[in-house]
Amino acid sequence: MKGEEGGMEEENSVTINDLMKRMAEFARERDWDQFHSPRNLLLALVGEVGELSEIFQWKGEVPRGLPDWNKDEKEHLGEELSDVLLYLVRLSDICGVDLGKAALRKLELNARKYPVQQCKASSKKYTNYNNAKLQGESLNIGNENGNEDAITELP
Ligand SMILES: Nc1ccn([C@H]2C[C@H](O)[C@@H](COP(=O)(O)OP(=O)(O)OP(=O)(O)O)O2)c(=O)n1
Question: What ligand 1 atom has the least distance to the C-alpha of 35?
Fold first, then answer.
């Protein structure tokens, strides 16, 4: 079924866990676990982000849904998006991070950092809001290490 934003919403859709298992199997079968270290996977991920960027390079802004792209171009895009996703999933797994859980938690943090009434129709960063500093402090967002680890209220 086509989603409102042009995305796909299918029953029995692929889960992050499915992809994680498939990548683990792919590596194990090839005796590639030895190469799938955090640093190697991160570099591979960045490389694939570069390949993805290349697809859009010099094209200028393109309309949502890419109506002018042909089948081959869209297929190529799907491949590069998949490479990024697969390396991201694998990197998370190898680092012992539950990516699905982490992403849900981050969505919750984002929602609290960007209250609808303050940011509706504005793309400004949260630091531009009047009480942004207070919000950051109460959430412990951006601690001295520049990360958000200190947030304790969320699972
Ligand atoms: N050591 C590796 C090498 C590849 N892959 C998997 C994950 C990616 O989905 C894909 C990447 O393969 P390539 O390095 O051949 O890159 P591309 O598919 O982008 O090919 P090309 O660089 O020719 O565009 O294969 C992997 O898991 N571990």
Answer: 1
| Threshold 0.95, pTM exceeds | no
20-55, pLDDT tens digit by residue? 999 999 999 999 999 999 999 999 999 999 999 999
Beta bridge partners of 65: none
The model's pLDDT over 69-96, given as tens digits with 9 standing for 90+, comes to: 999 999 999 999 999 999 999 999 999 9
Domain borders along the chain are 16-97, 100-155
The rounded Å distance from CA 119 to ligand 1 centre is 39
Please check whether the domain covering 16-97 is classified as CATH 1.10.287.1080. Answer: yes
Q: Which are the contacts of 150, defined by CB distance < 8 A and separation ≥ 6?
A: 140, 143
Residues within a 6 A CB radius of ligand 1: 26, 32, 35, 51, 83, 86
**Which of 37, 81, 83 maximizes ligand 1 atoms within 8 Å of its Cβ, making it the mutation to test the pocket?**
83
- In the reported structure, the alpha carbon of residue 42 is separated from the centroid of ligand 1 by a whole-number distance in angstroms of 13
Write the CA distances from 152 to 108, 119, 136, 148, integer angstroms: 13, 24, 13, 10
